[in-house]
Request: fold
Amino acid sequence: MGKLLAAVLVACFANVAVAKGPNDVCAKDRETLCGTVERGEGRVLKCMMDNKDKLSADCKAKFEKMKDHAAEMKDACHEDHEKFCANVSMGKGRKMKCMMEHKDELSADCKAQMENMKDAHKKMRKGK
Reply:
């Protein structure tokens, strides 16, 4: 898996794994499957991914939607990632931070996908 795709997937799925709100379709799954997992360093996300076959249909659909967003972003941003961030180490959001630091230099397609991802994150946080 490409480094950018991995970074995008972590960023997207982390929101699904820890998002809270009145419409959080993954809340019950998270509590049932991962309620005893210590938060931080992607542990809840890992637990959710390890139990993906046990997730409710709505939660699986949310994961799939974010996976689609991540794939679209990878396609649109691959060249930009290689140009600006290929040598940035994975982890702690460093890849995404690098991309954001170069946002004014990114291709139009990549900028659009970054905005789409930002909008999707906002919706996730609101539980939509």
